[in-house]
């Protein structure tokens, strides 16, 4: 019987290697690596083998060069250009006459030559400093294009792009963790797990680069970390372990944004306290509860944003009044530590009230954002802000209101002289006892003739009763013509305002327009409404948002009401109007006739699928439509969810809509 034990072969290889010198063992190992594919687990084996060879002190220059070239080839095939460049230079240092390293180093690789190769200084051209100043005004999408331009701009664009670094510890999905882990949907679970694995591998590669490349690490100014899953399998703990080694390398890090559950956020903050105690900006988004911030020791923050969510006790969270009170107390303690340095603050805590104003120095703040409750016991917040906010440029309030504020806006109508961005969103009443019918009229008078105001948001939710209780009607729109520099407008459309008049009240300078309140107004003839609205719409409008408009087709809205816009948002869906993008080639008539039905049907399907994300009973979810009944001459491209969630501001900038958007206080690029 012929029986072969594969372990005998392994033992024989081991016995033979024991008889070889270290240099011969390295030569044998390098020969074997030529048969290994550089991917998956083999990638780790490959890297460890090369590193072990290079640590041999008696390694010959020929084998040193051979090991470096072997790893450089593997890295080039996977896109690791910087690491390959270092290996090729090291190979030439060990063996200057090596022809293979010379050929690889000078190969006409677009990325290597344009991003890494030193550029000769030619007289008569702009200096690097001038190019850097030019590039600093470009949107990120144009910077990505510059990576492939044979000019010093490509290197500068690379450095500017990586000033902000994003790490995704898991993929983004609207599906709950329980549904992902369920055996009832194996294909869905497998796809999401594959997505999570890709993000984990990408994060590990980036952090490895940060650890090994000090020049790359020194470029990073802002770090954004996203994790949407709890650490059940320990994968986040592994990534946080790598992060703990990478953070000290980011010597110029100034701002950190963290979106993660509680169990993923606190370990990162503990590391940051040690590696970057003088952090400049910190933004926290906690999707499954709130943090105890009293344990944090940061004392030099200039920008702070905090968003907490309360979950039910069954989900492991708490929404009790005592818990909300303790969270507000810990937040006040943390803010008092940074009282002297804070310049911008954003608090979003729907079940809590604004922290004590004594914990912050309102006179030093330039941006205030708050989403939460304003009960009758918190009536002192607004007068304190109006009295002491001399330097305020941005005031953003989204509140459940239960106190009377109109006397303060009347008596302090000349306060906030440098106000440029104003937002007041009344989500409803706490105890249904709100009765301040002079509130919106007093705010309209407070804002009247403010020539420096750039964006304005005045919305009232909660139904017809809240509209009456706050005094919101067509007269509020009368303040708009006096705001001659307004670029962005978000406002509730009152049912007593004729569309033919309302459109002409909108300032001609507006680039971004958001209208809501159509559900409360019970709009019955949306096409007729758009037809009457269209003549008065500013010709320079670029972005239109209709939160609850009763039409299923975005192309219908564009064609009948806003033919000039580049971007439209309906519900949670964004659509780029390609026809209005400069340089868009368009489509011929035959192409239009062939594809228009498919385009219209896709818009109908997307609107129908988004009905799960729309409020129950909204017109968008209940209007039926037949895709064969509407053919549009407009090409619309729907945004992916990742673009809308992570890169919306970048695309706003590229489409020219960004000046009409109020500052996002969760970001750090404040105006």
TrEMBL record:
<feature type="compositionally biased region" description="Polar residues">
    <location>
        <begin position="615"/>
        <end position="624"/>
    </location>
</feature>
<feature type="compositionally biased region" description="Basic residues">
    <location>
        <begin position="587"/>
        <end position="597"/>
    </location>
</feature>
<dbReference type="InterPro" id="IPR011990">
    <property type="entry name" value="TPR-like_helical_dom_sf"/>
</dbReference>
<protein>
    <recommendedName>
        <fullName>F-box domain-containing protein</fullName>
    </recommendedName>
</protein>
<feature type="region of interest" description="Disordered">
    <location>
        <begin position="586"/>
        <end position="626"/>
    </location>
</feature>
<feature type="compositionally biased region" description="Low complexity">
    <location>
        <begin position="598"/>
        <end position="614"/>
    </location>
</feature>
């Amino acid at each position: 019987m012929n029986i072969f034990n594969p372990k005998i072969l392994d033992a024989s290889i081991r016995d033979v290697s024991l008889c070889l010198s270290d240099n011969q063992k390295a030569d044998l190992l390098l020969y074997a690596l030529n048969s290994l594919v550089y991917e998956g687990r083999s990638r780790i084996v490959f890297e460890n083998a090369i590193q072990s060879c290079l640590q041999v002190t008696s390694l010959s220059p020929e084998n040193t060069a051979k090991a470096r070239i072997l790893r450089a080839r593997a890295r080039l095939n996977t896109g690791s250009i910087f690491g390959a460049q270092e290996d090729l230079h090291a190979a030439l240092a060990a063996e200057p006459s090596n022809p293979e390293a010379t050929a690889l180093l000078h190969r006409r690789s677009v990325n290597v030559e344009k991003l890494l190769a030193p550029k000769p200084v030619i007289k008569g051209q702009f200096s690097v400093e001038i190019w850097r100043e030019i590039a600093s005004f470009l949107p990120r999408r144009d910077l990505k294009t510059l990576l492939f331009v044979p000019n010093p701009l490509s290197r500068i664009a690379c450095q500017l792009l990586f000033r902000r670094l994003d790490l995704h510890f898991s993929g983004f999905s609207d599906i709950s963790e329980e549904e992902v882990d369920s055996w009832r949907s194996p294909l869905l679970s497998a796809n999401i797990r594959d997505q999570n694995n890709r993000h984990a591998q990408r994060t590990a590669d980036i952090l490895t680069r940060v650890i090994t490349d000090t020049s790359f690490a020194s470029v990073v100014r802002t770090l954004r970390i996203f994790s949407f899953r709890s650490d059940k399998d320990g994968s986040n703990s592994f990534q946080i372990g790598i992060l703990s080694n990478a953070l000290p390398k980011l010597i110029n890090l100034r701002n950190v944004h963290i979106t993660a559950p509680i169990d993923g956020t606190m370990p990162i903050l503990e590391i940051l306290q040690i590696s970057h105690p003088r952090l400049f900006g910190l933004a926290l988004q906690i999707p499954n509860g709130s943090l105890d911030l009293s344990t944090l020791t940061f004392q030099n923050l200039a920008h702070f944003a905090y968003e907490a969510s309360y979950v039910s006790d069954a989900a492991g969270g708490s929404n009790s009044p005592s818990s909300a009170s303790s969270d507000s107390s810990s937040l006040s303690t943390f803010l008092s530590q940074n009282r002297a340095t804070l310049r911008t603050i954003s608090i979003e805590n729907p079940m809590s009230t604004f922290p004590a104003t004594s914990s912050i120095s309102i006179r030093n703040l330039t941006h205030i954002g708050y989403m939460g409750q304003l009960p009758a016991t918190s009536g002192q917040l607004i007068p304190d802000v109006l009295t002491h906010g001399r330097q305020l440029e941005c005031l953003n309030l989204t509140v459940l209101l239960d106190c009377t504020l109109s006397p303060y806006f009347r008596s302090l109508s000349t306060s906030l002289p440098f106000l440029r961005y104003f937002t007041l969103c009344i989500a409803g009443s706490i105890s249904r006892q709100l009765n301040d019918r002079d509130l919106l009229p007093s705010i309209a008078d407070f804002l009247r003739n403010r020539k420096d105001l750039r964006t304005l948001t005045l919305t009232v939710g909660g139904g017809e009763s809240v509209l009456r209780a706050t005094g919101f009607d067509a007269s509020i729109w009368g303040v708009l013509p006096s705001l001659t520099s307004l670029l962005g407008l978000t406002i509730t459309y009152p049912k007593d305002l004729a569309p033919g008049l309302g459109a002409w009240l909108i300032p001609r300078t507006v680039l971004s327009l958001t209208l809501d309140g159509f559900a409360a107004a019970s709009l019955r003839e949306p096409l007729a409404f758009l037809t009457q609205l269209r003549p008065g719409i500013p010709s320079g409008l670029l972005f239109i948002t209709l939160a609850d408009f009763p039409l299923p087709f975005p192309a219908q809205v564009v064609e009948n009401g806003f033919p000039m816009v580049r971007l439209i948002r309906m519900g949670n869906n964004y659509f780029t109007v390609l026809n209005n993008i400069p340089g868009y080639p368009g489509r011929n008539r035959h192409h239009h006739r062939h594809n228009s039905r498919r385009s219209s049907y896709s818009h109908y399907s997307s609107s129908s699928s988004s009905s799960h994300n729309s409020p129950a009973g909204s017109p968008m979810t209940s209007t039926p439509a037949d895709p064969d009944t509407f053919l549009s001459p407009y090409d619309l491209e729907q945004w992916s969810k990742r673009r809308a969630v992570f890169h919306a501001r970048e695309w706003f900038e590229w489409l020219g809509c960004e000046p009409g958007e109020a500052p996002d206080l969760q970001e750090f690029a404040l105006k």
